Amino acid sequence: MVDYYLIVGLGNPGARYEKTRHNVGFRCVEALAQRHGLSFGKHEHKSIVATGTILDKRVILAKPQTYMNVSGDSVVPIANFYKIPHERILIVCDDMDIPLGTLRLRKSGSAGGQRGMAHILQRLGTQMINRVRFGIGRPPGRMNPADYVLTTFQGDEDIIVMETIDRAVKAIETWLTEGIELAMSRHNGPGTNEQERAPRNAQPDPDAGG
Question: What is the pTM for the complete model shown?
Fold first, then answer.
């Protein structure tokens, strides 16, 4: 059996959700696939997958088609079928509790309110799962969070998102070749543009530990 790495981008299937905040996970794995000449097209275990080699590592990239809140119904069967150990799984997902343009890689911990991640952890029976949390910011005013994650990025947000997707791809590459610890130390935090925008009294993310 080939020693695969499983990289999962979370999102909702269908054209209506394609550019929404909830689908940045899909966009990151799509960008990773494009960068390394891999193609999504095969359907396996309720996912659209791309397989191949990235930086000498055999990988399976997956976009679950189960809808966000039951993502584990796709991720767990893939991991079980290919006998992929937990330490070789990486989940890429959106996170409202992180400012737009900020990445937070972690090797374990709770889902922090991200329901797709929560379902994966519950189905796998462990919190020791690597993840890339892609900040999408908090909803404005009293907007319902469930509505907010299904909105699209506007104006300058699109530029920030594209830059952050590129950084997320590089973070995944670091994880593949050098491990989660180095990936965390090298890629956690805002991009250069976001550092300039961040208020000086910004509070640290309480759930950002290793």
Answer: 0.90
